[in-house]
Structures are given as structure tokens and as C-alpha cells.
Amino acid sequence: MWFPAWLKFPKSLAPVSCSTVPVHPWTFGAGHQEESGNYLSPANAVDYLLKKLSGASGEQDILVLMIAENHHDAFMSALGQLTRVFPLPVFKQVERLAQAAAELAISKMQIPTITSSLPAPVPLSVGTCRSAMVSQLIAQAQQDAAGSLDSNGIKNALGELKSLREQVASEAASTLEQLQGGRAPVWAFSARGDINTAVAELKKEIPQQSAIYSAAVMFVSDDLTALKEMVECRGLS
Q1: What angle do the packed helices 89-108 and 72-85 form, to 10 degrees?
Q2: Cα 91 from chain centre
Q3: pLDDT for 189-201, tens place per residue?
Q4: What is the pLDDT, as a whole number, of residue 202?
Q5: Whole-angstrom Cα distance, residue 199 to residue 50?
Q6: Residue 223 and residue 132: Cα distance in Å, rounded?
Q7: Which helix or strand (DSSP H or E) is residue 136 part of?
Q8: 19 within 8 A of 202, measured Cβ to Cβ
Q9: What is the pLDDT of residues 202-233, one digit of tens each?
Q10: How far is the C-alpha of 59 from the C-alpha of 90, rounded, in Å?
Q11: Residue-range domain boundaries for the chain
């Protein structure tokens, strides 16, 4: 059944292996494109997911996460909250596409200006150049290490390594604490068992049916227990 939920990190998260099916306004065969932008209703999003389930059979564990809004700004806000907690690549992609659409809409209303000044200087970053510079730094570090293998040098290097390890551990702990403290509102669908029963339930009481901006992702596996621990039912107050 569908229910309003908070998506957040549990105290511990086990590895998950599953099939992942995303759908959003820019998904070919799902979204609706007009001059004013790309749109997708929750009902059409569910229809797309149902087609993907048509080839499945037997017992399955299913989880669907969806956001749905009536206004582009609200959709952008919901995407931002979701990607801060669960930066799934497809959600990051949708966030970029939605931002690009918003910027395009603004630029259409602006009169372009031509300037004769140079743009502000920024660091030049090219993949091959970065690779060459990293290789040079490694080679230099090897030379430096070869020339300073006395007891004091080794002692200092070990001290720096210990300090770096402690810093990395502290940053990792801080990042995990921030992740576990964040949450994002979503609509969720959870089912486990016969796939035909799940399909029938997925069609029922689809939330926010009047929304025109929606994005969803469906996870399917034999066991999604670890992933479902991230989903907590919330009230609609």
C-alpha cells in the first residue's frame, strides 16, 4: 500500500542488491513534453513502473519511493531534500534537469547582453592534465621518500600518517552523523510476496494524483529488508 513516509538513514545499513527502475518527467515513454516543460503525473509514473513489472513472476520484495508536486519550485525543493539524504544518481540527474529547465525558463525572459571584458580567471581543469599532475606528484613523493629514509624521517612520516588517519576517521564519523540526522518526505509503496498481488496494490490509491511533477524509483529484489529500514511512516499533519 501507499503511505506518506520519511526517508532517513538507520543506525546501521547492510549492503543491498536489487533491480532499480527510475521514472521522471524526462524518462522516454513516460513523461509528457510541452513547450513550457516536461511533466509527469503520479498515475503515469506508476503505469511506467507496472510495465517494468510485467515480466516478473513469483515472490518479490518491492519498494517504491516517489515525490510529487504541483509546482516546479516545490518539486525542486523536494528533490533537494531527497538527494541530501539519498543521493541516488538518477535523483541527482533529475535535480540537474529540473534546475536546467528552471534556468532556461528564466533566460528566455532575459535580454542577452554582450560584454567586451574577459571572464574571471578560474583553475583550468582537464582530465589528462590532472592525470599527468597526479603522476608527477607521486613520482616526486617517491623521490622525496627515497632520499629521507632515516629514523627521524620514518618517525615523522608515521606521525603524519596517524594524524591523517584520525582526521579521516573523524570526518567519516561526522558525515555519518549528519546523514543519520537528515530526513526527506516521500510517498512510499511497500509490498512483499506474490507479484500479481503487489501489482494490483500498486495501482490502488495512488497519492497526489493531481500533481504534474513527479519522480519515482522502484527497487525489486528477493529481500529489501535493509533498504526498507530507511523508510518510516509519517503523519500528514
Answers
A1: 150
A2: 4
A3: 999 999 999 999 9
A4: 94
A5: 7
A6: 45
A7: helix 127-146
A8: no
A9: 999 999 999 999 999 999 999 999 889 889 88
A10: 27
A11: 2-107+183-233, 132-178
